[in-house]
Amino acid sequence: MKKIALLGSTGSIGTNTLQIVDAHPEEFRVTFLAANSRVERLLEQAHKYRPGMVVIADESKYTLLRDGLKGTGISYAAGAKALEAAVRDHEADIVLNAIVGSAGLPATIAAAEAGRDIALSNKESLVMAGELINRLCEKNAARILPVDSEHSAIWQCLAGEAPKDVEKLILTGSGGPFLRRDPESFDSITPEEALRHPNWSMGKKITVDSATLFNKGLELIEARHLFHIEAERIAILIHPESIIHSMVQFRDGSVKAQLGVPDMKIPIQYALGYPGRLPSNWPRLDLAKTAKLHFEEPDIRRFPALRISREALEAGMTYPAVLNIANEKAVYRFLNREIGFPEIAKEVEKALEAHRPLDPCSRENILALAEML
Ligand code: NDP
Ligand code: MG
Question: Which tens digit of pLDDT belongs to each residue from 325-352?
């Protein structure tokens, strides 16, 4: 029985994770739940799963949480600092970090310092502080288990392979809803259009990232830190059907791919069940029905996010952290209709140009940058 600390339980990845727990009551128990503001949903989950501890990051929801848990014996707290402390102190076998954005970074750092297994959905942590997190994991014998579907695919393809045999990683991406849209009309893209992803149902921030392709840029940086491979050996390939979740090319010319229906429960369950595989009942891939798989090079002119992300990764230092913060800020401004769609990439580029780089292994530097939001 694995004890799971689930951070971001009220979101898309969080609720998918709870479905996996429901399907495997003999394998998993949720002992800690955390979210930000959806207190009713968090309380429902607390009553159903009976964790030992529940934390809400938004302090204004404290009394609602307290009143809702009255008589249950469940411990509770509110605030970002309380969340960080609870992640450090709570004895879980695995911390699944599904908080969205840079708000997830302190929890990843706390879990790494506590030497936990971290099923990491919050890719922004690694983008902002990959070197620091890797260092903490090594020092405290913590492990990062990828949840992001592309990285889960690569991880599965690498099983049993020697690092020296790997020639390159091929990250696939659907291309998002604007793959075929006339770039001349990108100015008029509305948040509603950007939130309509062709293949995946996800939270708002990552859905917009998938439309700009900053998601693929963040995943490039994530892959660099997860698999310790140089940026030049990580390729990006557009694959609109989202059936091949990523590939690894080896030095003998062989290529391994991981395939499946686009359902995040598969990579989440793989991370939770690792090193074994657990059974599942969800729909199977039917390749005869899919019939055709397509691939193409990404169009860097249409999607400058890919070029900007690669440049930030190559520049190193705190550039990737700034890329992440500026993107997050711009995404919420776009969702609030304060800026247009093409301005997201422009704002990120502006922030990178203005940045004076700092030591990326300093916890204080990175957390201070994160608080600039
Ligand atoms: P959602 O927006 O659906 O959920 C985000 C979760 O984070 C919610 O539970 C939210 O709480 C919580 N949260 C937000 N801010 C804070 C905070 N300051 N402190 C604590 N909790 C907070 O996002 P997703 O589930 O889509 O994505 C989560 C992460 O997983 C992201 O990093 C994303 O990039 C990554 N990911 C997601 C995929 C997907 O399919 N959705 C695929 C691959 C990666 P509340 O709801 O209470 O406000
Ligand atoms: Mg992904």
Answer: 999 999 999 999 999 999 999 999 999 9
In whole angstroms, what is the distance from residue 102 CA to residue 81 CA? Answer: 14
**Amino acid at site 296:** E
CA dihedral 11, 12, 16, 21 (to 10 degrees): -10
SS3 track for 163-184: HHHEEEEEEEECCCCCCCCCHH
Domains of the chain: 2-146 (3.40.50.720), 150-262+283-370 (1.10.1740.10)
Residues 212-254: tens digit of each pLDDT: 999 999 999 999 999 999 999 999 999 999 999 999 999 999 9
Contacts of 175 (CB under 8 A, 6+ apart): 213, 238, 239, 240, 296, 298
* Interval between CA 341 and ligand 2 midpoint (Å): 21
DSSP, collapsed to helix, strand or coil, labels residue 258 as strand
Residues 83 and 95 sit within 8 Å (Cβ to Cβ):
no
Helix (H, G, I), strand (E, B) or coil at 154: helix
Tell me, using a 6 A CB cutoff, whether residue 247 lines ligand 1: no
| Residue 62 β-bridge partners | none
- Pairing outcome for strands 2-7 and 94-97: parallel
77 Cβ inside 6 Å of ligand 1: no
Q: Please give the number of the atom of ligand 1 that sits closest to the Cα of 56.
A: 20
Q: Please give the DSSP secondary-structure letter assigned to residue 293.
A: -
Grade residue 211 by pLDDT with cuts at 50, 70 and 90.
very high
57 φ, ψ (degrees, to nearest 5): -70, -35
* Best CA proximity match to 223, nearest among 144, 112, 118, 107: 144
**pTM for this prediction:** 0.98
